[in-house]
Write a structure and sequence with these properties.
By secondary structure, the protein is an alpha/beta fold. It folds into three domains: 94 residues, NAD(P)-binding Rossmann-like Domain (Rossmann fold), CATH 3.40.50.720; 88 residues, NAD(P)-binding Rossmann-like Domain (Rossmann fold), CATH 3.40.50; 79 residues, Serine Threonine Protein Phosphatase 5, Tetratricopeptide repeat (Alpha Horseshoe), CATH 1.25.40.10. Helices cover 50% and strands 11% of the residues. Strands 2-1-3-4-5 form a five-stranded parallel sheet. The protein has a three-stranded parallel sheet with strand order 6-7-8, with helices on one face. Helix 10 runs antiparallel to helix 11.
Length: 276
């Protein structure tokens, strides 16, 4: 089968060439993203492979169908970049990655946690400069620490098992409780009171306010989320804080309030230093 692969990267080509030796598909690699300006490259290809940042809307799909494409395969689990309804109407099948290694994501998260806790990046930079002082590089032991696992699905469970191996206590947040998580000794708690408790301990943490606001938003507790986002703005009137508030107001239909929030981003953008 002839396959047009958009947003192709060199590492993908290496892997696919190796795997394709068995199947002998004719793959044309395009580094450019798929969109209105590049869809002509797919003419005559029965199959098209795309990634998360490609544009596969109704207009692009019409041109793909006219060019003979009958299959769109996205190299991602998400498929929001594809107008699935339009694809169905045009007789184009859409397939995606349904599963991938949760271990790779979980292990990378643990690596980041250790790098932050043990100041590995800072220590590496110092030793490269011949500075072996320990001042400012002290971390803490993870054993007996409480680790919050937000989402105890496949990735969350792998992460939880690793942290249990460190001797940590596990605190889970998920709508669906996992028996396997509880078998590890983990317990579930409501995210909202935990975030509120954390804010009382760190009232200057914008990230905690935004996480609490996002949680309340997903629970459809919009009035509470609005109050939290407004508190975040009082702590630090940043682009992100105004964006969160604007998105909330737009979602609930308060378009004037949304516009007022989004307009606050402009003055901050003007203050950013230019990058040449």
């Amino acid at each position: 089968m002839r396959v047009a692969m958009f947003s192709a990267r060199s590492y993908e080509r290496t892997l696919l060439d190796e795997l394709n030796a068995r199947y002998q598909h004719e793959i044309a690699y395009f580094e450019t993203a798929l969109g209105q300006d590049t869809v002509a490259l797919a003419n005559g290809f029965p199959a098209v492979s795309v990634f998360a940042n490609d544009c596969v809307d109704g207009g692009v799909l019409k041109q793909l169908a006219a060019g003979g494409t009958r299959l769109v395969a996205t190299r991602s689990t998400g498929f929001n970049q594809i107008d699935v309804k339009a694809a169905g109407a045009l007789g184009i099948k859409v397939v995606r990655v349904t599963d991938y290694s949760p271990n790779s994501v979980a292990e990378f998260a643990v690596g980041l946690l250790l790098a932050l806790n043990r100041k590995i990046v800072r220590a590496s930079n110092r030793t490269r400069d011949g500075n072996f002082e320990l001042e400012g590089l002290m971390g803490f032991d993870l054993v007996n620490r409480t680790v919050a696992v937000i989402g105890t699905g496949k990735i969350g469970m792998v992460f939880a098992r690793i942290m249990a191996g460190f001797g940590c206590e596990l605190l889970g947040f998920d709508v669906d409780h996992s028996p396997d998580f509880e078998k590890l000794g983990g317990r579930y708690a409501d995210a909202v009171p935990m975030f509120r408790q954390a804010i009382r301990l760190r009232p200057d943490s914008v990230r905690l306010y935004n996480n609490l606001g996002a949680t309340l938003f997903k629970l459809d507790r919009f009035a509470e989320a609005r109050t939290v986002y407004q508190s975040s703005i009082r702590v630090n009137p940043s682009d992100g804080a105004y964006t969160n508030l604007g998105n909330l107001e737009y979602y609930v239909g308060n378009y004037r309030q949304a516009a007022a929030a989004f307009e606050q981003i402009c003055p901050w953008a003007d203050r950013r230093p230019s990058i040449s």
